[in-house]
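tool=predict chain=A
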Amino acid sequence: MFNSKQKPTSAPEPTPERQPRVTHTPGAYPPLSPRPDPRAPDSRTQAAAPTAAQVAQLLSDAPKKETTETAMPPIPTVPDLASESPSRLVVGPEVKLKGAEILDCDTLIVEGRVEATMDSRVIRITERGSFAGKVGIDIAEIHGHFEGELTARQQLIIHASGRVKGCIRYGSILIEAGGQISGDIQALGELRSAEHSAAGKEVERASNIKALISSVA
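tool=predict ok
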């Protein structure tokens, strides 16, 4: 056998890895813009955001919404008759008139205390005024107190602070919320109807009695 030296076999050289290549044709793609930083404020938002002065101006220029509240209309007051007639008597706040009969007075304004009888056109009792007695009047306007016998041939007006007590007769009545009235109260129309009815019954009764006497005779 021949001893022959074998040449050592060398290891095969490694094949170099193939790296991908990207070729770029100038002008084929637009240049990339830098990505905005999300933490940085947007210039468009800053431009669109109104300042405090602009917000205040917008609020001042905005039309204000009108609010409507439901409220009861106030009771009309009796017109002042001083220009129509000089026959006007005013009893001041510190004046007390007692045991008098008031005559030839178109308008009586009571600011103090009065105890009297009166037949006239208009009586007006203020909030601090009071009247006690007998009154025949066309129009009575009560802000204060009245006690006695009152006949308002046309209209009786009682305001919220008014207090009326006694024998009350009226053509028409108007009472504001809060006003009080007590006693013998009756409308003149109803009173006249009752009187006519009573008179008719009395005539009918007299006729029946007369007929009965004639039949007996």
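The mean pLDDT is 75. Residues 88-188 form one domain.
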